[in-house]
Amino acid sequence: MKDGGKLIVFSAPSGSGKTTIVQYLLKQEDLNLGFSISATSRGPRGDEEHGEDYYFISLKEFKQHIKNEDFLEWEEVYRDNFYGTLKSEVERIWASGKNVIFDIDVAGGLRIKKKFPEKTLAVFVKPPSIDELKIRLKKRKTESDERINMRIAKASVELATAPQFDFIIENKNLETALQESHDLVASFIQKKEVSEK
Known about the structure:
- This protein is an alpha/beta fold.
- It has helices at 18-26, 59-67, 87-95, 106-115, 130-140, 145-159, 174-196; strands at 7-11, 33-35, 39-40, 55-56, 71-78, 81-86, 99-103, 120-126, 167-170.
- The strands form 2 sheets. It has a 5-stranded parallel β-sheet with strand order 2-7-1-8-9, with helices on both faces. A 4-stranded mixed β-sheet has the order 4-3-6-5.
């Protein structure tokens, strides 16, 4: 992979608010961020669009990409339900002169941090509590109770990985979480650029 800008990873249990934070950061022009669109073997949910929310590819295609080592990181999140970051996606954003921001699961976030320790800022977004997480997931009305319970069980495991991240932001108050996230990312981007000159 060719060298490029910085990598900003936001990971969290589902329902913690990481997507809201990432969407906000993408709108901040001073950060010069490009969104890394993940590939997935699952079908679109709701009004998700190919090439905007995810690259929706078949299970067979996904496995072929794994064989070809096309992924920066990938994971089978649930049985036959794969997610991953294509190397070409990161190169596409770097080629446009931007820093890459990821909204990905905990395992994927830590893999990117491990591969590019100096270039990556890994942020864990923590929900105020598991109970609050359950309320947020139910409010979405996008998944069955069984699916929500699977996510809650996974969240407990993911919360245990929080200390492996560079920073933990607790999303109790969204305004505060947005400000903290912006300040963190801005200082990471500036600090690195100063040391590279």
